[in-house]
């Protein structure tokens, strides 16, 4: 399976994603330049973390107009998997691939730490190798990670099982202390209506080796593999 | 046709948490400006554009706000009257 990793000016997690896909997962990966119009027959698209266009205007607001995003949107519309991590989540929201928006962290500080997230839905393209309620240790690193959406949208997301990760403490409680950015309802990751676009602030690609503190992110990539290959 | 200048104010939507505004409000209180009730911090954008007339310029900038300059989920915008640049 081929993963296409989009590099925007200012992306800085594209190499981490490449490493996770090729060295850990053992699959093929290629970088996709933001000015290109060709997904190079990639099966899965990763919008990586970073600071595309210096976060000018709003995080993700300019990247959304990069030429490659037209192809990414078409890929998503056709049911193709898209994984938006951190800045990639912000871009996916700005592009309308996911509802809501990511705002400045409530405490105004950049947060770089290990977060714990609870798996809310295991029956998805991205989480089928996890157990519902399982607590994962995945790092976060962002300044604009506070997920917000109109109340009606939040209700809809929850009712449809589209909130797939929530920040939680070690015992699984959705406490305010476990919420690193003030996201509404401790939301850490959501999927699109079709279930094929995932946006999440934590970095699964940085949690792919016990040497780096956690390999809880590996099964997310393996889940895609299991589902798409099936 | 003419050249117009239009200013746009973009503010966080009322009711949404505005941590920057709150931090500045607290600092103002510390400085002794006790009567301050609320602070909202947004963006001020000035656009110069060619347009048929002032009304057309304002319509174009409104469209820019809807498509890019403001986030429809979290922000409100107000545009000032177009002036000849």
Counting DSSP H or I runs of 4 or more residues, the number of helices of chain A is 5
Count of runs of 4 or more consecutive helical residues of chain B: 2
Let me know the CATH homologous superfamily of chain B. Answer: Phosphoribosylformylglycinamidine synthase subunit PurS
Q: What is the percentage of strand-forming residues of chain B?
A: 25-35%
Any key phrases for this structure?
heterodimer; A: 230 residues; alpha/beta; Rossmann fold; nine-stranded mixed β-sheet; 5 helices; 11 strands; B: alpha+beta; Mth169, Chain: A; four-stranded antiparallel β-sheet; 2 helices; 33% helix; 32% strand
Walkthrough of the structure:
The complex is a heterodimer of chains A (230) and B (85). Chain A has helices at residues 14-24, 67-77, 87-94, 151-159, 218-229, and strands at residues 2-7, 28-33, 44-47, 82-85, 101-103, 111-119, 135-142, 146-148, 163-167, 187-191, 197-200. Chain A is α/β, with parallel strands linked by helices and 230 residues long. Chain A has one domain: 3-Layer(aba) Sandwich (Rossmann fold). Chain A is globular and about 45 Å long. With 85 residues, chain B is of the alpha+beta class. The interface between A and B is medium-sized, with 20 and 11 residues.
């Amino acid at each position: 399976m081929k993963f296409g990793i989009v590099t925007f000016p200012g992306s800085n997690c594209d190499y981490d994603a490449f490493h996770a896909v090729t060295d850990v997962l053992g699959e093929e990966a290629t970088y996709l330049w933001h000015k290109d119009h060709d997904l190079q027959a990639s099966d899965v698209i990763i919008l990586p973390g970073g600071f595309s266009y210096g976060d000018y205007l709003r995080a993700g607001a300019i990247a959304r107009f990069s030429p490659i995003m037209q192809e990414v949107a078409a890929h998503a519309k056709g049911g193709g998997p898209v994984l938006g991590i951190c800045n990639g989540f912000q871009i996916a929201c700005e592009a309308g691939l996911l509802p809501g928006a990511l705002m400045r962290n409530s405490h105004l500080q950049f947060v770089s730490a290990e977060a714990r997230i609870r798996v809310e839905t295991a029956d998805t393209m991205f989480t089928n190798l996890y157990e519902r309620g399982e607590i994962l240790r995945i790092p976060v690193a962002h300044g604009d990670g506070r997920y917000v959406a109109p109340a009606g949208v939040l209700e809809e997301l929850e009712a449809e099982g589209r909130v797939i990760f929530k920040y939680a403490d070690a015992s699984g409680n959705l406490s305010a202390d476990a919420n690193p950015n003030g996201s509404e309802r401790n939301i850490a990751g959501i999927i699109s209506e079709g279930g094929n676009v995932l946006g999440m602030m934590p970095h699964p690609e940085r949690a792919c080796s016990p040497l780096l503190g956690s390999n809880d992110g590996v099964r997310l990539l393996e889940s895609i593999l299991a589902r798409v290959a099936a | 046709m003419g050249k117009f200048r239009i200013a746009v104010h973009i503010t966080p939507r009322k009711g949404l948490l505005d941590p920057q505004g709150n931090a500045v409000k607290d600092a103002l209180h510390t400085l002794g400006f006790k009567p301050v009730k609320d602070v909202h911090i947004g963006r001020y954008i000035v656009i110069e554009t060619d347009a048929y007339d002032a009304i057309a310029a304002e319509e174009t900038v409104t469209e820019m706000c809807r498509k890019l300059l403001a986030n429809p989920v979290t922000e409100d915008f107000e545009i000032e009257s177009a002036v000849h640049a």
